[in-house]
Amino acid sequence: MEGQKDASSPRLPFPPITRSHILHCSYHSWHPKYRSITPKARLIPLTAPFLSYLRADGIILPPEANDNEYVSADTDSGIFSSASTSTDSLSDTDSESSYIDPSLSWPEIHLRIKSTIEELGGNVVPKLNWSAPKDATWINATNNMECRSPNDVYLLLKSSDFITHDLEQAFDSCSSPHPPSPPANNTTDSPETKPDDGNSSISYHLILRKNIPALATSLEFRCFVRARTLLCLCQRDLNHYDFLADSVDSLRVQIQRFFDENLKDSFEDADFIFDVYVPPPYQRVWLIDINPWAPRTDPLLFSWLEILTMRGPGEEHGERLEWDGDGDDNKGDGEENVDVGRSSDDEDAEEEEIFEPEFRLVGRNDPEAYSFNTPQYSAHKMPKDVVDASGDGEAGLREFMGRWREIVREQGRGGLEVAGER
After folding, report:
1. pTM above 0.70, yes or no
2. Which of 30, 60, 180, 261 is 20 to 30 A (C-alpha) from 270?
3. CA distances (Å), 40 to each of 65, 98, 211, 215, 353, in order?
């Protein structure tokens, strides 16, 4: 979802992005209103101690029930390791004294997560206010976002750059990312955020959604709304599916009707992006997420330049571009064919037609259809040995952890021998 702008790229004609717009797109803000059209989910308000745990370096997980082993992370190398309170540790006393169960600082959160997982059938998918830890699936034994225990949830959240963005940079794209400073004599800090970090107005929530094994990612779509008009939509799964071409018309009709009946006049902002899931036989639409109208949201099969300059109903052209710096009119890769300000002379002669949002799919010969060899979110992944181990499932992960523990133990013994020779 997140992206970075190149310094030489055009300044896209986004309207000012406000803090209120970002907050309106937070899951906990819109979910109560649209609960009946979203998949089953539970929201857990997060406390300051739990947020501090998510922000802390390294990964230390609470002990599992009936398990004497805990998993921690080496904060120097960034690679997790396993330690044990059993007799095979270098020192039982040292191990027990150095390990503190992190959930002791937030026991109510830990118990709530555990009970919610059980309530939702023992298999959930987590996210925070805006982002899901999709970039951290490599560290999960199942190689996806399925979580069957609280520790599965903690491991994904603490390994994700997307979650860190929610915690630290939620308002970075705003015209005024930080609220006005409080009076000098006001020493009260927000109970849920660090002082002066611009996040004082955020009520952080953990969202646990019931996992649906039968959910087909080929039927998830991203929809772009400008001026309360469904402007365009596209696949979320960037693979080619033959059957979608025959279903475009029925899918477009159902999504347009869903938007008109549920979102068009009820969402707080006129510009936003929403994701939907339309299972066969395409008679019902489920709302999956609502995203900010901002560069941080991935336009997928479109570019933001296309979307911002796309003609809406009754418009001659989209927004006017502004260019940074040197007056270079280079539009960037892949933007040569975008029509910024077309003449309407020929169009005035055409009969007026009902506006139909563009529906873009991955074609059989499109480059996106052949990108399956490139791991998604690869920029966020860890060393190859760790990724390979996670690819072998739980057994491979445990074997890697065991090997790493032996390396740490041997290094510790070597250190003790050197110290004894001095």
Report:
1. yes
2. 180
3. 27, 40, 9, 13, 39
